[in-house]
Design a protein that fits this description.
The chain is an alpha/beta fold and 430 residues long. Among the domains are: 149 residues, Leucine Dehydrogenase, chain A, domain 1 (Rossmann fold, 3-Layer(aba) Sandwich); 150 residues, 3-Layer(aba) Sandwich (Rossmann fold). Helix content is 44%, strand content 17%. The chain contains 15 helices and twelve strands. The strands form two sheets. It has a seven-stranded mixed beta sheet with strand order 9-8-7-6-10-11-12. The protein has a five-stranded mixed beta sheet with strand order 1-2-4-3-5. The longest helix has 26 residues. It is globular, with a radius of gyration of 21 Å.
Length: 430
């Protein structure tokens, strides 16, 4: 690899041609300014991450060659507690994206009233291109490089796109070896055998369903025989699909990296999950029609769940969506200008900072259980999750009616008020 190519790769986070989700986050923050009163004095602190960390990650490939990857960890705001946010392994990871995701974690944790600040991490890599050994070496080197930032009372990573329980196991072990003692609470989303929590893997998808159900009750959209369209069929989308199907809804369209499929009578969700687990493509499963990506967005639905990546719904797409309720399973899937279009069209958007907060909520439970070395049953976990998420959703919905704003703006008002009240009380040092 020549010097010019290396420099371009190393500075990818500065590329203006890349999507700029941080700008979307800033616009969402600006929209709550008129609602904060005296706390608005501190609003600018949310427009500047507390700490932005870039790391170079050299690893030796299986063939003996050396390759460098770029990694990030961002602490957006720690006014209410230690940082909390996932680690993403994806070829499109950039500093701009990680900054925005850390900001959304700040808002999400405050909206759910969890005692955390916002953080996020990522490595610019396609994990499918690495062997298991290479992936382990990458994860351990990344963990070691960000080790000065993380810790059970400082910053607690978790799985995200492209990472899983195994990734968290390597991260926990690497940190623990460097500390000279087992520190199970340094990450969440771990296997049960290493201090993980029951119900953690299903938590985000389950939370999406809970908020969708509550929104449907307010909007008069019955769950029985409701038409559901889901973009993304990974951990979040697949579990959400199971919950919708169990409640009597029809999942009429799915989309993943292999393509888009539909069935107006309802896709067999369990068969779709089995297909993907077997390593087959969703588009090759029987009983569905393969459709184009454009046709996927044109399918009429009662609930639309974007559960893939950010920036999926722009103003143009928002003009033609035929749905009643959008439930954001992904982080930042709807651009601010699309929010305005959807509001004018009377389409309810349950924002990501509430809808997909099930994962971080059960991560909080896992963190608490690790500290106490006392673990709850899955039934207890699910009951606590449902109680917290339902209460958070209804608080947001009530404020939205009171202030005559969208659910997203209401969630940001609640979150920013909590964060900035803490900032105000703590003051500035020095």
């Amino acid at each position: 690899m020549d010097t010019q190519t290396t420099s371009k790769k190393m500075l990818s986070f500065l590329d203006p041609a890349q999507p700029q989700p941080w700008a979307s986050f800033i616009e969402q923050i600006d929209r709550v300014a008129p609602h904060l009163g005296k706390l608005g004095y501190w609003l600018d602190t949310l427009k500047h991450p507390k700490r932005v960390f870039y790391v170079g990650i050299p690893i030796r490939r299986d063939d003996g060659t050396l390759e460098h990857f770029e990694g990030y960890r961002v602490h957006h705001n720690l006014s209410r507690g230690p940082g909390k946010g996932g680690v993403r392994f994806h070829p499109n990871v950039s500093m701009n994206e990680v900054m925005a995701l850390s900001g959304w974690m700040t808002i999400k944790n405050a909206a759910l009233n969890l005692p955390f600040g916002g953080a996020k991490g990522g490595v610019r890599v396609d994990p499918a291109s690495l062997s298991t050994g290479e992936l382990e070496r990458l994860t351990r080197r990344y963990t070691s490089e960000i080790g000065i930032l993380i810790g059970p009372n400082k910053d607690i990573p978790a799985p995200d796109v492209g990472t899983n329980e195994q990734t968290m196991s390597w991260m926990m072990d690497t940190y623990s070896v460097n500390q000279g003692a087992t520190v199970s609470g340094v990450v969440t989303g771990k296997p049960i055998s290493l201090g993980g929590s029951l119900g953690r893997r299903e938590a985000t998808g389950r939370g999406v369903f809970v908020t969708a159900r509550e929104a449907g009750l307010l909007q008069g959209v019955a769950m029985k025989d409701a038409r559901v369209v889901i973009q993304g069929f990974g951990n979040v989308g697949s579990v959400a699909a199971q919950c919708f199907a169990a409640a009597g809804a029809r999942v009429v369209a799915l989309q993943d990296a292999s393509g888009s499929v539909s069935n107006p009578d309802g896709i067999d969700v369990e068969a779709a999950i089995a297909c993907v687990k077997a390593g087959d493509r969703l588009v090759d499963m029987p009983g569905v029609e393969v459709i184009s990506a454009e046709d996927f967005w044109n399918i009429p639905s009662d609930y639309l769940v974007p559960a893939a990546l950010e920036g999926q719904i722009d103003a143009s797409l928002a003009e033609r969506l035929d749905t009643k309720i959008i439930v954001e399973g992904a982080n930042g899937p709807t651009l601010p200008e699309a929010d305005d279009v959807l509001a004018k069209r009377g389409i309810t958007v349950v924002p990501d900072v509430v809808a997909n907060a099930g994962g971080v909520t059960v991560s909080y439970f896992e963190w608490v259980q690790d500290f106490s070395s006392f673990f709850w049953s899955e039934q207890e976990i699910n009951q606590r999750l449902e109680s917290i998420m339902s209460a958070a959703f209804h608080s947001v919905a009530e404020l939205a009616v009171e202030r005559k704003v969208s659910l997203r703006t209401a969630a940001f008002i609640i979150a920013c008020t909590r964060i900035l009240a803490a900032r105000d009380r703590r003051g500035l040092y020095p």
